[in-house]
Fold these 2 entries.
Entry 1:
Amino acid sequence: MDRINGAGTTDIGGGRRGFRDENLGLGIEGTEVTALWANMLQEEIVKVIEDAGLVLNPADWTQLSQALALKFSSRSGKGWIAVLSMTTTAPPGAPASGDTYLLPTGSTGAWAGKDGMIAEWLGLSWSFTTPKNGHGISLPDGRVFERIGGAYVEKIALDSQSSKWRYAVAGGTANALTAALTPTPPTLTAGMKARLLVAAANTGAATLNLNGLGAVSIYRPFDNSLSAGDIGIGINELIYDGTYWRLVAPANVVSGSPASRWTKFSNGLIIQWGGLGTSTGGPVTVTFPIAFPTALTSVVVSDESSPIVSSQMSIFGVGNKTTSSFQVSATKDFSTAVADSGLWIAMGY
C-alpha cells in the first residue's frame, strides 16, 4: 500500500502526499487517481474482507465494517466466544444484534450449509465464521467447550473430573520421591494437592521434589513425623501447607477388607480388632493382624458370653503388650484362670 502517487498531489503535513481539489478558475489541477493506486486500495480492502471469512457481495456495502468487527472481536474464531446455544438448528425469528450461535449439524434456513460455523446477527444479516481448533465457547448455563480436532468437548470439566492436573507417577526412591505435574506449576503454593502413584513404601523420613521445585519433607497431617510404611504402595494424596507436604490420604489408609481386621487412618492412627479364647493353663498370646509401626497405646478385651449372665461373665487381664502382640487370661474369682471367649480392640500408630 502507498499514499496517492498520481500527478497533482499536495503535502497534507509531515511530507505526506494527499489529495487536492481541482480549481479551473485558478488553474489548479485536481489530484490524478492512478489505476495502480486504485488497485492497491481495492486489494487492501478486499484482503481484509476475505481474511475475515466473508465472501465478496456487491449488494452488501457493509462488508468492510463486518470484517473489522470480526477481526477485533471474538468472532475471529480464534478466541473464546459466548454463544446462546450450540443445539439450535433454526435461526430465531427476532434476533438481537450480537446474538451468537454455534451451528450444529442439520442447521436450516439462513443457516443451511453452515454446520459447525459460528453465526452472529449483525443487525441486518448473519455473519458466519469458521472457528479454529483451540478456541472455545461458553454457554449461558456456565458450561465451557473447547474445539479440539474439529469437535467441541468440555475439556476443562473432563480434565477436572479425571484429576489429571494433580496426578503423577512418582519417581526417585522410596524416601526421596520425585514427580512432575502437567501443566508445570511455577511454584509451590499452600493448598496445592498432588496424587502420586508410589511403587515402594517409605522406610523412614521422606521428601518430595515436585517438578524440580525442591525436595520438601513429607509429614503426617498433624505432626512433623513420618514412620516407615506411612507412604503406602499405590496412590497417596498430599497437600502442601506452605512449608511441608502433608500425607492426608495414604495408599494404605483402609485395609483391604473388613476381614483383615485392621484399618489405618490418615492421621496415622491404626485400629485392630478380633476374637480370642483363654485357657485354664494360664495366659495366651494374641498376635495382631499387623504390627504397629511405632507404638501400641491401648488394648481392651470384653466378655463374649451370650446370653449375658453375671455368674458366667469373666474378667480379662491383659499384659506383656508389644507392638505385635499381647497376652491375656480370664478369671471369675480373681484367682483361678478359666477358659472363655472374648472380643478385643487395640489402638496404636
Entry 2:
Amino acid sequence: MKSKGLFLLLLIAVMTITFYTSQTDNSPATDDNDFPVSAGTQPGDHHEADENETSEVMGSQEVKAEVGFQAPSFFLEHLHTGEEYSLDSTDKPVLINFWASWCGPCKLEAPDMVKVYEEYGEHIDIYAINLTDVDDIPQVESFVEEYGFTFPVLLDEEGKVADQYNVMAIPTTFVVNSEGEVTAKHQGYATMDDLIHIVSEVVEES
C-alpha cells in the first residue's frame, strides 16, 4: 500500500511539473530592451511631436532669454555718451554680446566682432554689454580703444541684465530679430564662422 501511495504522489508531481512547464513555454517572450509602443504611436512619430511642441514655443510671447522667446527688455547707458539704449532704440536686429575686459576668450573674440560689424553693420546692430559690476571702467575703456569698438558699449553696472539673460559664462552672445525674438544664443567664445552664421540667418529673414 505504501509503495502504491508513493507511486501516486510521484505521478502527481510529474504531471504538475509538466503542466507548469508547458504554460511557461507557451507564454510570449519578452526582452528588457523592448520599447512598448501604444496604439497609434510609432517610434517615428516622436520627432514629429517634438517639432510641433517646438513650433508652439516659437510662437510664444513669453519673455525668456532663449531661442524662440521674446528677449528681456533693458535700459543701459553708453560707455562714452551716457545715452540710454534698449532693444527699442533700433529697428534692426541686434547682436548682444556679454563680455568683460579681463576675459581671455573675449579678447580673442573682439577682432571678429569688429569685422562682423564692418560687414553687416548696415543690417544689424551690436550691443557690447560689459559686466561692469565685475569690471573696471578704465580697463573697459582701454579694451574698447585697443580693439576699435565702434558699436555701442553698454554698462551693466549692477549685473541685472546679465541676470535677466541668465549669463553663466562670458562671452555669451544672443541675436534678437527686429520683432524682439531671440533667434540665436551662443555661450562661450564664438569663432568668425559662428558669428557670421548666426548673423547672416537673421539678416536673411529681415
